[in-house]
Amino acid sequence: MPLRALRSKGSPLLYRMPGSALVLMVCAVALLLTLGLSASFALRDRSAALQHAQDTAGNASLLVAEHAARLVETSDLILKQAVQLAGPADAPLPSDRAGWERYAALVRGTPYLVSIWLFDAEGNAVLSTRRFPTPAMNVADRDYFVAQRAGGSEAGGNLFITALDTNRYSQEPLILLARPLAAAPGQFRGVALVAVSPRYVRDIYKSFDFDYARSITLRRTDGTVLLHETQGPDATDSAAAEAAGEPEISALRRVDSVPVTAEVAIPVSSVMERWHGQLWTYISYALAALAAVSVVGGMALQRARRERQAESALQHAYDTLEERVHQRTAELEQTNAQLETAVTDKEVLLKEVQHRVKNNLQVICSLLRLQAARIDEPARRAFDESLRRIQCMSLMQELLYRSDQPARIDFADYLRQLCDGLVRSTNPTGARLTVNAPQPWSLDVDQATPLALIASELVSNALLHAFPLGHPGTITVELLPEGEEGMRMVVRDDGTGLPPDPSAAQGRANDKRQNGLGLVLVRALAQQAGAAVTMDRQPDGGPGTRFIVSVPTLAKTQTKAA
After folding, report:
1. How far apart are CA 514 and CA 498, in angstroms?
2. Which among 172, 174, 220, 489 would be 20 to 30 A from 128, CA to CA?
3. Is-above-0.85 flag for pTM?
4. What pLDDT was estimated at residue 466?
5. What gap in Å lies between CA 84 and CA 16, rounded to an integer?
């Protein structure tokens, strides 16, 4: 619409007002908007600062919980090794130099472990990596020893984690993990203990990049404090605020599989102090905006006199732009038509290429059949296997040629046609082959090709080798969903099955299901398709063999490959 028409439809009052009055009105509105927006942004920044502190506390609590889980997990692994090194229930506890060396090696390999202790059933120290020989010490009154002697009920199982404790030997605060030693039923043999230095944990926490003062606390589920650390740019103020009971932003998270919780707290005063520093920024912006409004207002007073000249120039630019838009629209429509034609041509070309590939594969199959007729039986078997694999890929090209999607096929339909062709061409014993694929599965050709070759190898091997005595049997192929987005292909037969061990496999050198190229190809193709292959020699205790190919979704496979 021309600008003159827009002007004629505007409010008559605005056009009758003097230009200076209109500029002053605009400046007053701009002033109010500037003050209002500055106040709004300041309040919004305050809320954002509190939310950022809350998010920071939540993320830090997750990180602390993950680190605590890994720390307890690895420490418990060392503890379990220490229990194993203590020997069976009827063995005496190790207290010699050789035993001490084995336990000392465990401590040297773990930087955060201070020592390992073994205590007998009366609480007396038998072995300690602190010193050899072991110093005299009795821990019968300690909570971890009492809990383990009582059967571990207070520890939630066999593992017990204590609060920060002062070790009687080293006078150093430690985090202790204890497990009972192997003992006969109803008896108590003693306790194995590992000591973790909190200094290592604090060094990890110091590496966290926080913008606020904060406190990090690890507690047992009963509320006992395992570790409490106050850190940050104003950690002293944070500790004082915490002691004074000032408000805090905290996040509490349970550590996975461990009776421990991690808490990260940020004082509100620390957040507000940083926010107060931002207020001067908003004040500076507001003053600069007011100055800019004054300058712009003065310039607008001068430019109001030249409004009519500018309107004429703008009208001319508007007309020119409209003409260019129409011209550009016509060019885009022509380009879109050319692109649609190119896409159609490429689809036709792709169909033709797929058709030619299928024909070429059929020619290769014919040549292989002619060549196989001139060679002896062992070599002909290799030709037959190559011919079957080429026919498998030829069937894939034929289905792609007939598919509405040039790069995807219905794998369930392909599997039914493949099995039908195999049972008619490769079935010396007359075995019965059934396919159970109740729903379609649209797969990309890059994933469908190795899966098709896997199915061909498994089914043909079952037809040729599952029934060596000539008795017909049943082979079942299933294509079923697995989980929410996965797919599972199962090839099962009720034949003689695979040999139970590698030595038996050597006595059946001709069984390609165990030693030949087929199983090697199946594993290589499964890796290419991002699938997992499992094999059962006697599934459910019955005769035969079962191969299970677990196939992830196409999207997950592409992510893994990337």
Report:
1. 7
2. 220
3. no
4. 82
5. 98
